[in-house]
Amino acid sequence: MAPMAHQAPLTHSVAFLARRAATALAAVAVLGAAAAPAAYADSASPGKLPDGLYGTNDPQFDGVWRQSLALLAQDTVGIRPAPSAVTWLAGQQCADGAFTAYRAEPGTPCDAKTRRDTNPTAAAVQALAALGGHGDAVHKAVTWLKSVQNDDGGWSSAPGSASDANSTSVVIGALTAAGEKPRSVTSKKGGKSPYDALLTFRLGCEEKAEGRGAFTFQLKGAAPNADATAAAATAALGKGFVVAPAGKNATAPVKPLSCEGDEDKKAGGDPVRAAEGGDGYLVAQLDKNGQHLLSAMPGAKKQPDVGNTADAVVALAAGGHGAAAAKPLAWLEKNAAGWAKQSGPAAYAQLVLAAHATGTDPRSFGGTDLVAALNATGPAPAAAAKKDAEDGGDSEGGGIGLPWIIGIGLAIGAGIGFLLSSRKKSGL
């Protein structure tokens, strides 16, 4: 299972990996074989954190992940990240294009013992593609991701292990960010696409009513998993971490998987309908629990899962369900600030992205300025976008040279592949 950080509180990133691993562990018990996904680090983290890194917790298991989300969230709201922060992320890449969770000595080349990981690789792709100026790094990372695609069309965190819904979802987001059409990225053996793999984790009409439409983490027939469902519902529409704002006035009704008509019974191969069914499951769970999801962490089943609730908001917004997303968003505005303060940059980034997806101002989020709070967890950002444009300046280091546009809750970073705001434009 995924390693746990040794200090409290956990960063959101580590908690995210642990949630997935807890579900996968049950699958391992059934199979007696396939290993649960893990967060891999190339080497032990140093006593002194490197310059440019966001957060103060041990980065050994989530350094690249939290850095990627932090930079992506800043870019999404028109903040130009510090060059040192971008340079740190780019410097974590191995020569073959892959990333691991964290490399304490990035100057040392990766070797056969370096445990490459699809999750931080896909997260870094989304961040570097959005920032611009890193085309070679993005291309190399995507090429590596394609090289470790499983025969079923999906991915595991650890190359060579069985595919899972979360890893497949984050790679779909990376492919879209890099300008690829996920459906055209097929396995060498079998010709399966990422969507073919993703839909194998979907629970359909053969399941009990309360689980229909949900996604499992890994095994068909395993329990519904809200974390996997939120990730898969977004990825099934060809989208990643950044979702164009649906807005609170987007009132498309959520259509749960009812299985009362032929449409639902025959929808097993339709990613868009699968996303809709996943959204229906999420709404049912949110309504049941008071507009938040519950933690899947062992021993904490009654504890609100703030991060997963933010993921659900993004998934609902991705499906055009702004009105449905507004309810859990309101819960986040009242309850998420303390969690984010304890958890660090990835948590603030998630809330920024949830606010962005709903057209909400992240600088006034339940009384918290999420952007300022995120900025405070790392090196001071470069000059604000508007000032930089007026000065006509290019970036210093980090390879950022694109113009920036300020638009709270509206701006989308240059070069990102999530400009597709409707299902017809999802690239499926």
Explained architecture:
Residues 1-41 form the signal peptide. This is Squalene cyclase C-terminal domain-containing protein. Keywords: Membrane, Signal, Transmembrane, Transmembrane helix. The chain crosses the membrane at residues 401-420. With 428 residues, the chain is mainly α. It is 42% helix and 1% strand. The chain has one domain (12-425): Alpha/alpha barrel (Glycosyltransferase), CATH 1.50.10.20. It has 16 helices and two strands. The protein has a two-stranded antiparallel sheet. Helix 4 packs antiparallel against helix 5, helix 8 (226-235) runs antiparallel to helix 10 (271-289) and helix 10 packs across helix 11 (306-318). The two termini are 33 Å apart.
User: Which percent range fits the helix content?
Assistant: 40-55%
User: Which outline best applies?
Assistant: globular
Structural class by sheet pairing and helices:
mainly alpha
Oligomer: single chain
Helix count? 16
Counting DSSP E segments of at least 2 residues, the number of strands comes to 2
Measured between the Cα atoms of the first and last residue, the distance is 33 Å
Domain module tally: 1
Compute the gyration radius: what is it?
Answer: 20 Å
The percentage of residues in β strands lies in under 5%
The averaged pLDDT comes out at 81
Signal peptide: 1-41
Organism: Streptomyces angustmyceticus
InterPro entries: Terpenoid_cyclase/PrenylTrfase
Transmembrane segments: 401-420
